[in-house]
Amino acid sequence: MGKKTxxxxxxxxxxxxxxxxxxxxxxxxxxPQAANELLDAVEKSIVERLLDAEKFEExxxxxxxxxxxxxxxxxxxxxxxxxxxxxxxxxxxxxxRFLYAGQNREDII
Length: 109
Known about the structure:
Layout: E1 5-10, H1 12-28, H2 32-49, E2 58-59, E3 69-74, E4 77-85, E5 90-100
Parallel strand pairs: 1-5
Antiparallel strand pairs: 2-3, 3-4, 4-5
């Protein structure tokens, strides 16, 4: 049996979350360099996790879910994703949310 490969998929909600945070940092805080650095770190972290998306601890939530959530910590933010199995050797890593680490997650995800 070979190693499982993961295809990457982003939900529109993740893109909205990310854009909102990047615009806030770039425009409201007037720090476009920090926004660019955050974007680079997010992209790098997701690509690295894509190599073995299920290797990490699941996020335990009080809500019943069809797929368990996983987390990636990037600076003061958390990326949430699920893995949707497509068989023994293939699956989809679906990136769903990008939240500030201090946000109340249970009401959002």
